[in-house]
Design goal:
45% of the residues lie in helices and 20% in strands. The protein has 240 residues and is an alpha/beta fold. The chain has one domain: DHBP synthase, CATH 3.90.870.10. The protein has a seven-stranded mixed sheet, sandwiched between helices.
């Protein structure tokens, strides 16, 4: 058994390996928590994404392909959480209020925002189109401190689209412990642009791939596998 200091060094090493893999355009795997969704997601850095990465997620993940982004950038773009948009729209469409009464079983709120396509896409759903949407969105995140960033976003994207955006909690892992917060926090810890493209991993039966199976897959294919607690521990020790 590892002694406490060796165990800590091992976790730090895995975190470093994960951020190095992301920076190199490689996928990593993150398991959230057995008491939460109990799912493992694949992630690529949004700034390095290519059409073959979208194809990888589509074929090897099987769940919803989405963008995860930090709250600050989304706020600079003027993006709302979807439930806030529905609250406003429910004044005209009361059905939305009725639908929002049904809470999700594993959390108190959702990270979903709007879905987008880049203006240069056609249908928006092809691997090329989704890669373009993700990469161009990520480029804006890298420059989100610009005074005109909201104008740049609105002039380059349209909604509804084929790539949903998930916005991390304003307080990161101190406010919510979903996959959105886990990947964005990890990327900040690694000094990477806090934007990623991810997808839930489904098994051959159509259910979520179990953590033991996910770890086996990671070992066989050489992917970095992280548990949410590892990222959370590192975040709590950080200066963020």
């Amino acid at each position: 058994m590892l002694n406490p200091s060796s165990e800590l060094d091992s976790k730090i090493s895995r975190l470093d390996q994960a951020t190095e893999a992301l920076a190199a355009g490689q996928p990593i795997m993150i398991f959230d928590n057995a008491n939460r969704e109990g799912e493992t997601d694949f992630f690529f850095s949004g700034t390095t994404v290519l059409p073959e990465n979208i194809r990888f997620l589509r074929k090897n993940g099987g769940g919803l392909i989405f963008i995860a982004v930090n709250f600050e950038s989304a706020n600079a773009f003027g993006l709302p959480f979807l439930e806030h948009s529905f609250t406003v729209a429910s004044e005209k469409y009361p059905i939305l209020s009725n639908l929002m009464k049904h809470k999700i079983p594993y959390d108190t709120n959702s990270s979903f925002s709007i879905s987008i396509n880049h203006n240069d896409t056609y249908t928006g759903i092809t691997d090329n189109d989704r890669a373009l949407t993700v990469s161009q969105f990520s480029n804006l995140v890298s420059n989100s401190s610009s005074d005109k960033i909201s104008d740049s976003f609105s002039s380059n994207f349209r909604t509804p689209g084929h790539v949903p955006i998930c916005i991390a909690n304003e307080n990161y892992l101190n406010g919510r412990e979903g996959h959105t917060e886990l990947i964005v926090s990890l990327m900040k810890l690694g000094n990477l642009a806090p934007v990623a493209v991810g997808c839930e991993i489904l098994s051959d039966t159509g259910s979520a791939l179990g953590p033991e199976e996910a770890q086996k897959l990671a070992k066989e294919r050489g992917y970095v596998f992280l548990e949410g607690e590892e990222i959370k521990d590192a975040w709590q020790r950080s200066e963020f």
